[in-house]
Amino acid sequence: MRHALHRLPGFEPRHAAACRACATITPSRSIHLEAALVTRRLLILLVLAAGLAAVCALTWTLAWKSGIDSLRRDAAVRGDRTTAALKSTLERYESLPYIVGEHPLVQDVLANPKREWVLAANRYLEDVNRHARATTTYIIGADGECIAASNWRDPDSFVGVQYRFRPYFIDAAKGGVGRFFAIGTISHDPGYYLSQPVRREGKIVGVVVVKLNLEWFPGTDPTEPLLVTDDHGVIFLSSVPAWKYRTVRPLPADILASIDETQQYARQTIAPLPAHVERVLEGDADIVRIGRGLRAPRYLETRRALGEPDWHLVTMSPVGPVVDAARSVTVMTGFGYVSLCLLGFYWRQRRARVNEMMKSRAMLQKAYAMLNERVAERTADLSQANEQLQREVHERARAEAELRAAQDELIQASKLAALGQMAAGITHELNQPLAALRSFSDNTRVFLERGQYEAAHENLEAIGSLTERMGKIVNQLKLFVGRARPRSLRSPVAGALRNALALLGKRLAGVSVTLTLTDRTDAADAASVAFDPHRGHAELVAQCDDLRLEQVLINLIGNALDAVADVPSPRIAIDIEVQAATLAIGVRDNGPGIPDDVMPRLFEPFFTTKEMGQGMGLGLAISSSIARDCGGSLAAQNEPGGGARFVLTLRRAQVSAARVPAADV
């Protein structure tokens, strides 16, 4: 089987030797070679992974050991400093009870507690305590009762209190030195008690006690806790307040009973800390975890004895920074190892790539020549396509020029159509005032012939009003020409409805007209009453021009009259529905209704179902346009019992009684 290189362009005879070598490799041998290559690569990956694990483990161990050693050195320094400060405080007051006990006044008052001697002893102890800066200094008789104290003036004075049960009294009464840390039974303040026996003529007659406040100790950094435990292992000094009066290990029942009997910690509940040792280190050091769960903090715990008294100082150094530092160093070492491996792999791949590029350069030269030929062919095709594209661009430009010319002609035609529609609308609106004007003028002539001058005067006023109305209608040409919206005016509904009914008075003869008013501003008390437009109804004011509102009402009532023209008992119902923000005026008739095919085109200009000469199809279109301009709407529907109903909805204008009078508008 021939090698694939034989089929490549630019293959030369000098490659024949390599091809013959390839041809000698059988398929089975090729499979074995590929399997050996895969096995070799897997072995290299395993060796590299094992090296990475070993390097990371070694780095972690060294970093951990270095961090723990640093913590132990820092803990030792902190422990030395704290131990020196604590022992210095205790030793400074060690001899104070003995000095106070050697004073003759103290010995006299213990031997014979006279009232004046007790008072003098109180003042002496008060002065000594103030100069020594101790918490409290007091003397106890041989029977265990406090005779005099430096706080004799305070409400919680120690005078008269029995201390026979306190270990520091018991030790001093036996001739020794009493050292005891406890919570005071009277002041309830923790303190360190130093006591010395008072001897008179070789006999112990009482005990002198000095109480020291060691609460300065918790002022150390709480992130690196320091603890002091008593001889039972109870924590009585701690930089973490929550750890006070806890134990580092569970206590036997007899020791708990002894602590409770001496009231050492004022009935505090003595419970062990939730701590467990994770790792024991050499030299009184452990890795402990305080709390439960994997997120509980871990500390390096180191312990040292303070000597006298039998206390132990425990330093707790957080291990978290050591773990973080060891993790960071391990990650950096791992990245460095991986980077070295990748660098070696890159160097090897680069060498293989360079060799491959040198072998392929001759083939690429031939491929470049073939590519140049293909580029030349494609260039010719592109030139031909470019010429075709230019021809299409010229055709498109010519079509756009023709389209612009057609658009200009269409705009001109639209202007002529708008002018015709505007003229037709004005003609439609002038028809009814002209008819009424003709009727009023005929009536006026008759009234003048009969001598009814008052009636003639009323008709002349109506003629003047109609003339003014026609002038306003013609003046609206300015709005059509300028495409401007009418001003936001206020129109009394009662006046507009009264004028519309007066204008259509002759056509309404013989037609039953009912007017209804429904107030729905209060949903709980909605009622319908008869509506009289002559009463004014000053609260019914719509946001619309009064002439335009009359124009819409005349069109709607006129269309209703046309609908009931052939009905035996014609009826028209006008209902006004008042809401908080809107006014709805409905005009309902009992005519034949609106056909379904007419309903979608009802408000189109020049669309009418009337016969030629009876209507131009602009009344509803103009009315709908007026409603939209005023921010309202005009809708039509067929009633279930027959007939049609048109509803004009407008925004309601809030008018106070002081602004619009209740009289006729």
Descriptive account of the structure:
The radius of gyration is 57 Å and the shape is flat. Among the domains are: 93-212, Beta-Lactamase; 485-651, Heat Shock Protein 90 (2-Layer Sandwich), CATH 3.30.565. By secondary structure, the chain is α+β, with helices and mostly antiparallel strands. The protein is built from 13 helices and 21 strands. The strands form five sheets. The protein has a six-stranded antiparallel beta sheet with strand order 7-6-13-12-11-10. A six-stranded mixed beta sheet has the order 16-15-18-19-21-20, covered by helices on one side. It has a five-stranded antiparallel beta sheet with strand order 2-1-5-4-3.
Give the secondary structure arrangement, pairings included.
Elements: H1 16-23, H2 27-92, H3 96-101, H4 104-111, H5 115-132, E1 136-141, E2 146-149, H6 167-173, E3 178-183, E4 190-200, E5 203-212, E6 226-229, E7 235-238, E8 246-247, H7 253-262, E9 271-272, E10 275-281, E11 285-290, E12 298-305, E13 312-318, H8 320-450, H9 453-475, H10 477-482, E14 491-492, H11 493-503, E15 512-519, E16 527-530, E17 541-542, H12 546-563, E18 571-578, E19 582-589, H13 619-629, E20 633-638, E21 644-651
Parallel strand pairs: 8-9, 15-18
Antiparallel strand pairs: 1-2, 1-5, 3-4, 4-5, 6-7, 6-13, 10-11, 11-12, 12-13, 14-17, 15-16, 18-19, 19-21, 20-21
Helix pairs in contact: 2-8, 4-5, 8-9, 11-12, 12-13
